[in-house]
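User: Could you write out the 3D structure of this protein bound to cytidine-5'-triphosphate? I've included everything you need below.
Assistant: Certainly. Input first, then the structure.
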Amino acid sequence: MAARAVVVVAAGSGTRLGLGTAKAFVPVAGERMLVRALRTVLTLAEPTLVVVVAPADRMDECRALVADVAGAASGYVTVVPGGADRHASVQAGLAVLPDSVETVLVHDAARCLTPASQFERVFAAVGSGDAVESGDAVESGDAVAGGVGVVPALPVTDTVKRVAGDVVVETVDRSALVGVQTPQGFPLAGLRRAYAVAERAETDDAGVFQAAGGVVRTVPGDADAFKVTTRWDLGRAEAVVAERAGARSVDLRVDVRVGLGVDVHAFDPDVPCRVGMLDFPGEPGLSGHSDGDAVAHAVCDALLSAGGLGDIGGRFGTSDPRFAGASGDVFVRGAVELLRDAGLEPVRVTVQVIGNRPRIGARRDEMQDALAAAVGAPVAVSGTTTDGLGFTGRGEGLTAIATALVRSR
Ligand code: CTP
Ligand code: MG
């Protein structure tokens, strides 16, 4: 059972948006806010229980929507009816969590574009206790709330005035102010106690937690985690989605080409092992004129073939003494250079490593980063074995297959 949970509050009526429908069900660029918020929560790496707090009169619709979005992960998601205000809705969500949950994040469905990284940042800060700096004079042990809460915060950019009616009383020192967002994270037991003793509804969970004596610290927020409250916010959300889609798509009207590269090297236990531009100490190396880095060579070939520029042997000479023992880096950078001369640049590379060893899973990120630095574009690395079949299955050698997408510059 997951030790962490996210409560997504989605039971509000959306009065200020004024569309006559519950806000979480309002679409942003064709997709309901609740779907967008939920989809992000479901991408979190660790198992996370999710409670969706829905409008009481839309429970069936909400359950259907959750089943649709969560699919096989539906078992992790519970839907409960909300209350008259946000405070009551959060309490309804907290009530159904099992006591085994240690950390809970409370999130507004209306902050539907909040990136997953913000959830991870808050979870990490609650979990590690990093949020409390050493030497800090804050004592939380005796507080009703107990533990440390974490809120994502952004600096206030507008000049802020205190007013009485329409008369400005003073300018408030903005350097001491932040705007806070969700998700806000807490130890579950502490947040439950805080809600149980709360005497008045606060506008956020950190307010409830702090009123009960809990300590709340901030982590950096994200501009995309803004709350959709008004029509203007809805337009802003639509613009953010459009911008994200634009950044992800490749304009197919420009010259886009695809390349493929395959390389195979036999193991040689007497040479150091270098695969995907990383050293694997203690693993058998790969034989070859160069350093035998089949992954780098496959990437190089994929880049060259995408540009119609031949292959690694033809371009760099498998017996050329200049490349004896050369690292894979030299070939990949060489291929990128040749592409540039041809007016092309890499957009994305994918490479699959096929073999029993070395195991790349634990070093995937490192390998992707090393290859991406040489390619100058994102590189995705995956690995597989051949179920004991063939030369890779017998552990005689390693195969790498790469594809590359390049476009005109
Ligand atoms: N919320 C809730 N239950 C309520 C009120 C609010 O779950 N009774 C949730 C909303 O669905 C939203 C979040 O709390 O995700 C933040 O609230 P807010 O932005 O105020 O949403 P609404 O109350 O729906 O909007 P309005 O105040 O304009 O009616
Ligand atoms: Mg409200």
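Residues 130-142 have pLDDT under 50 and may be disordered.
User: Perfect, thank you.
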